[in-house]
C-alpha cells in the first residue's frame, strides 16, 4: 500500500507513506513522447523513451533513436537482435526485393519475427497493396493466433505480432512496419538496422570500426540465406540510386499542410516528406508515396493524434473495404465482438482500417461477420426459427423478430456430492464429455499438500516410501542400504575399505544385528623380522611392521669380515694391531672411525739382546738400548687414552719406567743358603695429570692419569 515501515528501537515501528517526487520529463531523441513506467517498488514512476523503429516505402528507415536513412538492399536483414541474449531465439528481420528492376529500388516483402520455438512470417502477396499472408513455422494460420506466449491478430489495416511477456509490439501491412519495445527491457542491448536503443542517434549507423555510414551499416546486417546466393555479408554495400529532380508531388505537400498540422507539434514531418519526394520521383507511377503519409499517420496515432487524410488525396491513396465493412481513419485497435464486450488494454489508441458499420458488431475475431444481435448469426446461419440449442452454456431458442434469440442459464443434471476427505486430496472440476457446460467434480491427489516430509536418513540408510491403499500422502521410513559405513563413507559388499595401512579390510555381506549395517572384515598385513647386521627392528610411528633401525656401527675392513661395534667400543684390526676401529653416537647418529697408530723409529741393532718386546698397544716395539747410561730410566711415548668407552681426542704423552736393574743369587756361608737380591725398575716420582675424553654419546669427560717423572731400581721380592 506504498507505505514504509522503519524499526526505531524498543519494538517501535515508524510507518510513513512513500513520497514520490514528480520526475523530470526527458526529451526523446526519436521525437516521440516519453512513456511513464512504474518503479520496482510499485509506488513511484519515471519516464522512459520507448524503442520505436519504423520502415516504409522503397524503403526508408527511422531507427529506435529517430535517425532517418534510406537503403536499397534486396536481401534479408536483421532489424533487431539482442547484443547480449536474454531471450531465447529472439529477433525481427525484413526481407527486401527489387520492386523496380531498372532503378534498383527495393521494397519490403516479408517481415519475420522469431521468439523461442516459433517463427512468424507476414508476407506481401501483391506489390504496393495491403494484401498479406501469415504463416507460423511455415504453416498458414487463421487469425487471431495465440500460442506459446505469442499472438498474431488483425488491427485495422495492420497485422500485429505481440509478445506480452516482453511487451513487444510489431505491426506490418505490406507497405510499412513498426516495432515498439520497452526501454526498461531492451535499452542498450539491441543492434541491427534499427540501431542501438539508447536515446542517442550518433551510434545508430556506427560500424564496428567506429565509422559512421548508414548504407554500409545497413548492409552489414545481412542474414545468410541459401535462396539468395547474391547476398553475402561483406560485399560492397548497395548504394541508394541517385534520383533526378522532379516535380514536387501534391500528395507529399499534404504532410506539411493543414491536414497533418494537428500532429506537427508531436511528430516532425520533415523526414517523412523527404521520403515521400524520393518515392514519388523514383517510382512515379506506383503511388508509393502514399506509404510515407500512411506511416506518418500511424506514428501520429501512436502519439494520440488521429488524422483522417486519405479523403484529401483525390482517390490516389484511397482504401477500399469489403462490402460488409466501412472505412474509418480512427477506429479501435480491437473491435468489440459478441465474444468480448470489452476492448483490450491498448484500446485508447486508434488505427485506420475496415470496421463493422455503426449499429452492428463483429461476431468474433475468427468469424468475419457483422451482426446486429449476437444471436442473429446463429439463427440465420445454422439454426431454424423455433429450434432450441445451447450457446455459451445457455439454453437458447431462435425466434422471429426482436433480438432473434432468447437464452436462459443452462441447467445441469444433479450429481452425487463428493467429499474429498483425507490429507492431500482436493476437488477438481473436469470436463463432462456428455455436457461440456456441466463439469464433473472428482477428487485428485496432490502430494505437495501433504504435511509429512521425507526424513533425512543417517549414512547407510535410505528413504523408502509407500502410499497405503485409499490414501494420498506417502509414508516414509529409513531402511538399510546393505552397505558398510566407515568414516562418513559408504562401501558396497566385496569392495575394499581403507581402515589403516596395517590392515587389509573389505565389506562383507554379513549384517550387524544391532546397527543393521554390513560388517567390515580386516586382517593384519604380514611383517618381516629380518634386519641387516648392525640393525634392530623397532616400533616406528606410522609404520605397520616397525623399521630396521641402526644400533651399532658396521665397519668394513679390507682383508676381513665386517666388524660390528657398539657405541664407545674400540677394536683392533684382526690382522693389523696398528689399525684401531671405533664407534661413537653423536646426535642420534652412529659414526665409525679408523685410527692408525704411528710408532717411533726403532732399530733392533741398538737393543740389548733379549730385551725387544711389544708395547701394550700391541703395535710398537721397544727394548733396552745398548748405550743406555742408566739401567732404569723414564721412557716417553704418545698414545690415546681410553676409559669407559670414552677416548682422548688426540694422542697423549705417556711415560713409563724401562731398563735393567741388578738381580743376583749368591751363596752365603754364614747362612748356609743362597741369598737373593732382586730389584726392578719402578717409578720413584709421579704426578697426576688431567685429559679431556670424548664419549660415544657425544659428551665430554675429564680423566686423571699418572705421569711418571723419574724411575729407579727398587728392591722387590725374588
Automatic annotation (TrEMBL):
Its main location: secreted. Residues 632-718 form the CTCK domain. The keyword Secreted applies. Disulfide bonds join 646-695, 657-711, 661-713. One of its GO terms (cellular component) is extracellular space. SUPFAM superfamilies: FnI-like domain, Serine protease inhibitors. Pfam families: C8, Cys_knot, VWD. Residues 368-444, 482-549 form the VWFC domain. It is found in: Secreted. Keywords: Disulfide bond, Glycoprotein, Repeat, Secreted. Residues 51-232 form the VWFD domain. PANTHER family: EXTRACELLULAR MATRIX GLYCOPROTEIN RELATED (PTHR11339), MUCIN-5AC-LIKE (PTHR11339:SF406). This is Mucin-2.
Amino acid at each position: 500500500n506504498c507505505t514504509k515501515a522503519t524499526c526505531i528501537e524498543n519494538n517501535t515501528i515508524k510507518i510513513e507513506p512513500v513520497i514520490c517526487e514528480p520526475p523530470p520529463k526527458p526529451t526523446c531523441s526519436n521525437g516521440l513522447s516519453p512513456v511513464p513506467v512504474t518503479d520496482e517498488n510499485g509506488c513511484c514512476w519515471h519516464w522512459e523513451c520507448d524503442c520505436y523503429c519504423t520502415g516504409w516505402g522503397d524503403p526508408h528507415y527511422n531507427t529506435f533513436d529517430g535517425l532517418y536513412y534510406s537503403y536499397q538492399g534486396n536481401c534479408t536483414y536483421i532489424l533487431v537482435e539482442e547484443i547480449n541474449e536474454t531471450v531465447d531465439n529472439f529477433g525481427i528481420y525484413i526481407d527486401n526485393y527489387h520492386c523496380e528492376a531498372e532503378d534498383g529500388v527495393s521494397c519490403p516483402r516479408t517481415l519475420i519475427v522469431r521468439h523461442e520455438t516459433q517463427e512468424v512470417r507476414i508476407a506481401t502477396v501483391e506489390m504496393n497493396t495491403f494484401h498479406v499472408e501469415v504463416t507460423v513455422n511455415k504453416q498458414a494460420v487463421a487469425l487471431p493466433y495465440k500460442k506459446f506466449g505469442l499472438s498474431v491478430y488483425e488491427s485495422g489495416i495492420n497485422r500485429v505480432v505481440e509478445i506480452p511477456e516482453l511487451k513487444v509490439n510489431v505491426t506490418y501491412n505490406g507497405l510499412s512496419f513498426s516495432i515498439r519495445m520497452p526501454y526498461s527491457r531492451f535499452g542498450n542491448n539491441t543492434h541491427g538496422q534499427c540501431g542501438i536503443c539508447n536515446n542517442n542517434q550518433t551510434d545508430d549507423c556506427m560500424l564496428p570500426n567506429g565509422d559512421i555510414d548508414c548504407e554500409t551499416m545497413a548492409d552489414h546486417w545481412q542474414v545468410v540465406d541459401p535462396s539468395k546466393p547474391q547476398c553475402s555479408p561483406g560485399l560492397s554495400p548497395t548504394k541508394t540510386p541517385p534520383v533526378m529532380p522532379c516535380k514536387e508531388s501534391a500528395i507529399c505537400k499534404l504532410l506539411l499542410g493543414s491536414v497533418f498540422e494537428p500532429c506537427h507539434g508531436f511528430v516532425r514531418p520533415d523526414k517523412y516528406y523527404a521520403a515521400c519526394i524520393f518515392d514519388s520521383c523514383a517510382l512515379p507511377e506506383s503511388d508509393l508515396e502514399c506509404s510515407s503519409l500512411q506511416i506518418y499517420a500511424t506514428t501520429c496515432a501512436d502519439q494520440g493524434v488521429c488524422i483522417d487524410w486519405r479523403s484529401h488525396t483525390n482517390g490516389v491513396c484511397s482504401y477500399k473495404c469489403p462490402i460488409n465493412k466501412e472505412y474509418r481513419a480512427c477506429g479501435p485497435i480491437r473491435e468489440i465482438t459478441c465474444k468480448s464486450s470489452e476492448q483490450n488494454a491498448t484500446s485508447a489508441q486508434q488505427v485506420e482500417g475496415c470496421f463493422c458499420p455503426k449499429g452492428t458488431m463483429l461476431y468474433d475475431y475468427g468469424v468475419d461477420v457483422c451482426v446486429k444481435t449476437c444471436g442473429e448469426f446463429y439463427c440465420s446461419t445454422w439454426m431454424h426459427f423455433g429450434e432450441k440449442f445451447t450457446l455459451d452454456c445457455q439454453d437458447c431458442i431462435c425466434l422471429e423478430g426482436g433480438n432473434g434469440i432468447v437464452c436462459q442459464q443452462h441447467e445441469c443434471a444433479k450429481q452425487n456430492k463428493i467429499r474429498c476427505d483425507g490429507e492431500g486430496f482436493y476437488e477438481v472440476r473436469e470436463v463432462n464429455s456428455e455436457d461440456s457446460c456441466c463439469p464433473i467434480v472428482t477428487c485428485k491427489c496432490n502430494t505437495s499438500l501433504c504435511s509429512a516430509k521425507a526424513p533425512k536418513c543417517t549414512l547407510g540408510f535410505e528413504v523408502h516410501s509407500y502410499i497405503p491403499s485409499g490414501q494420498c500422502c506417502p509414508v516414509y521410513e529409513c531402511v538399510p542400504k546393505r552397505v558398510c559405513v566407515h568414516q562418513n563413507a559408504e562401501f558396497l559388499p566385496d569392495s575394499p575399505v581403507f581402515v589403516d595401512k596395517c590392515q587389509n579390510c573389505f565389506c562383507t555381506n554379513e549384517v550387524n544385528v544391532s546397527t543393521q549395517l554390513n560388517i567390515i572384515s580386516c586382517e593384519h598385513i604380514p611383517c618381516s623380522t629380518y634386519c641387516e647386521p648392525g640393525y634392530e627392528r623397532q616400533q616406528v610411528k606410522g609404520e605397520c611392521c616397525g623399521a630396521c633401525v641402526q644400533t651399532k656401527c658396521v665397519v668394513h675392513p679390507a682383508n676381513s669380515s665386517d666388524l660390528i661395534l657398539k657405541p664407545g667400543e674400540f677394536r683392533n684390526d684382526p690382522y693389523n694391531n696398528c689399525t684401531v676401529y671405533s664407534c661413537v653416537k653423536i646426535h642420534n647418529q652412529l659414526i665409525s672411525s679408523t685410527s692408525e697408530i704411528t710408532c717411533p723409529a726403532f732399530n733392533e741393532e741398538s737393543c740389548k739382546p733379549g730385551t725387544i718386546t711389544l708395547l701394550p698397544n700391541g703395535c710398537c716395539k721397544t727394548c733396552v738400548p745398548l748405550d743406555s747410561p742408566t739401567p732404569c730410566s723414564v721412557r716417553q711415548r704418545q698414545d690415546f687414552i681410553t676409559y669407559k668407552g670414552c677416548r682422548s681426542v688426540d694422542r697423549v704423552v705417556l711415560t713409563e719406567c724401562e731398563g735393567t736393574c741388578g738381580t743376583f743369587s749368591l751363596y752365603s756361608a754364614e747362612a748356609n743358603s743362597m741369598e737373593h737380591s732382586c730389584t726392578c725398575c719402578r717409578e720413584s716420582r709421579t704426578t697426576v695429570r688431567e685429559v679431556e675424553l670424548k664419549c660415544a654419546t657425544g659428551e665430554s669427560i675429564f680423566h686423571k692419569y699418572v705421569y711418571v717423572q723419574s724411575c729407579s731400581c727398587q728392591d722387590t721380592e725374588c
